[in-house]
Specification:
InterPro entries: ATP-PRT_HisG_long (IPR020621), ATP_PRibTrfase_cat (IPR013820), ATP_PRibTrfase_HisG (IPR001348), HisG_C (IPR013115), N-reg_PII-like_a/b (IPR011322), N-reg_PII/ATP_PRibTrfase_C (IPR015867). Keywords: Amino-acid biosynthesis, ATP-binding, Cytoplasm, Glycosyltransferase, Histidine biosynthesis, Magnesium, Metal-binding, Nucleotide-binding, Transferase. It is a single chain. The protein has nine helices and 15 strands. By secondary structure, it is of the alpha/beta class. The strands form three sheets. A six-stranded mixed β-sheet has the order 2-3-1-4-11-5. A five-stranded mixed β-sheet has the order 8-7-9-6-10, with helices on one face. A hairpin with a 5-residue loop joins β13 (236-239) and β14 (245-253). α3 (69-75) crosses α4 (117-126). The longest helix has 18 residues, at 192-209. The chain is globular. The model has no long low-confidence stretch (mean pLDDT 94).
Length: 282
């Protein structure tokens, strides 16, 4: 069986399980379940702490896992990302009290508090900065107020919590992160079951990003209509009973669907419909 690590809690857990369910895999019904066997798909899921997943995968005991890019890099594990999943996106940045520093070049001799010691230590070393790093688990905003550090490095979404603590974001982002599928570095890239698993997840990503659009169009306007809905290879064109009309079917980006429908209507197309795509293989 293919052995896969899945986050057992936190912001990665729910979206990861939802994506796996959409991909046709069984998922646990209770959060206390640590292992789930899906015999129909020949997969065994292990629900682990997100921070530990890269370590387990790098050991070779598990074939692949879903975790955050930030957690993968912070772990220093011998593993690599092989597919971006598009959820749990975040930006990792430095913050401090106004007037303390303008950027990483001003950190010399200071202390940086963070929950991601590996990422920060490497970033400082890469920039030739002689600053020390102290590891804290969560709520790093209080480190400056309590005198533990002059700088913090943490995930920033809206920046509200930092502003509430009297801090400001400084310098360029350290990195951006999102959920990713990982495997042990050097593992067989053509592993058949891993490739099947990736195809399923890629199918979910495409299905979420596209809709199927159908519409009727006069033949003389067909080329202009097809230019609006080129599809992946090309649209499907079928003649209608009424002479001079054709039916067109094409995949279009979901975020562009309403604008395309307006443009098609202005072109004379009618019976314009969009339907969700639940699964696909490209």
């Amino acid at each position: 069986m293919l052995r896969i690590a899945v986050p057992n809690k936190g912001s990665l857990s729910g979206p990861a399980s939802a994506m796996l369910h959409e991909a046709g895999y069984q998922q646990r019904k209770e959060s206390k379940e640590l292992v789930l066997v899906d015999p129909e798909n020949e997969v065994e899921f292990f629900y682990l702490r997100p921070r530990d997943i890269a370590i387990y995968v790098s050991s070779g005991r598990l074939d692949i896992g879903i975790t955050g890019r930030d957690l993968l890099l912070d772990s220093g594990a011998d593993a690599e990302e092989i597919l971006q999943l598009g959820f749990a996106r975040s930006t990792f940045r430095y913050a401090t009290k106004p007037g303390t520093a303008k950027g990483v070049e001003d950190f010399g001799g200071m202390t940086v508090a963070t929950s991601y010691e590996g990422i920060v230590a490497k970033h400082l070393a890469d920039n030739g900065i002689g600053a020390s790093v102290v590891h804290l688990d969560g709520a790093v905003e209080t480190a400056i107020e309590l005198g533990v550090a002059q700088i913090i490095a943490d995930v920033v979404e809206t920046g509200t919590s930092l502003r509430n603590a009297g801090l400001e974001v400084i310098g360029e982002p350290i990195m951006t992160s999102e959920a990713v599928v990982i495997r042990r570095t050097g593992a067989d890239p053509e592993h058949a079951r891993v490739q099947q698993f990736l195809r399923r997840l890629q199918g979910v990503l495409v299905a979420r990003s596209y809709v199927m659009m159908d519409y009727d169009c006069r033949v003389e306007n067909l080329e202009q209509a097809v230019a609006l809905t080129p599809g992946l290879e090309s649209p499907t064109i079928s003649p209608l009973h009424h002479e001079g009309w054709v039916a067109v079917r094409s995949m279009v980006a979901a975020k562009e669907a309403q604008r395309i429908m307006d443009d098609l209507y202005a072109l004379g197309a009618r019976a314009i419909l969009t339907t969700a795509i639940h699964a696909c293989r490209l």
